[in-house]
Amino acid sequence: xxxxxxxxxxxxxxxxxxxxxxxxxxQVVGIDICADGSDLIKEQKLSEIVRNSQFYFVNKRxxxxxxxxxxxTVDAIYDCxxxxxxxxxxxxxxxxxxxxxxxxxMKFCAEQHSKFVYLSSFEVFKENVNLHGGDPFLIKEPRxxxxxxxxxxxxxxxxxxxxxxxxxxxILRLPTIYGPWQPPSxxxxxxxxxxxxxxLDPIQEDAIFIDDLIxxxxxxxxxxxxxxxxxxxxSNKKDQWQKAFRLLINDIKSDSSLVGEDxxxxxxxxxxxxxxxxxxxxxxxxxxxxxxQKNHYQHLERLRKLGLL
Length: 309
Prior knowledge:
This protein is an alpha/beta fold. Helix content is 36%, strand content 14%. The protein has a domain of 205 residues: 3-Layer(aba) Sandwich (Rossmann fold). The strands form 2 sheets. A 7-stranded parallel sheet has the order 3-2-1-4-5-6-9, with helices on both faces. A two-stranded parallel sheet has the order 7-8. It holds the Pfam family Epimerase.
């Protein structure tokens, strides 16, 4: 039986990945913090998977975990952490802690001969990056503090790999990911909840449904050309983020009880890339994906009304 460690197992991407790995027959060690009564969403997620006999939950921050104590053998470690409280004032501290934690994870991976999958972000680039491969991807200009953190940690992985033969990693730079359990800080979820003037995501170049990303992560072994490099993940379709935004805004306007200001979001020019090896896994239409996200939110609202969440 294969074993995977998912860091951030109760987060947006980490939770969906954990469920899929369990469905695929993996033994999964999930690492995250879930303090009693402090986060009902995390508690709900944990209740959905904790009864699976192949799931072992470690209720600690990754920097406090001694990995050999939680898994004897590991086939893959997925780092799905995304820290939202990164600011210009604390980014240097976050980078220092992140590098120290990464060193621990990578050394364990090297000892286990397991692959390491690190989820990075379009935020390592300046805004409106041209999604067509080539030189623009070599010019890394972080658009915010999170982008600076991600970029520095990417470089830490690359440096470690250069001096540790046999260490295998995948760095995936992600656009906006949407779907069930999308955090309420993100634009699509705010619109679904009826917010007529949402804050806008820092990434508007593209949008990918969560299940399609999970399909890529599950099949990452098939992409040998992506080993030991950073890869941009994108849909190869035009204006996906803007299309979703317009659809959700129109939904709000169709409800006469919600009258909000007009919001215009400029489309980003994207050239199709015939060499995008991941696009075949990105199959979910914006309409289908948003419907699933809406239905999931309505389900959670019913649980809240019943006092179950």
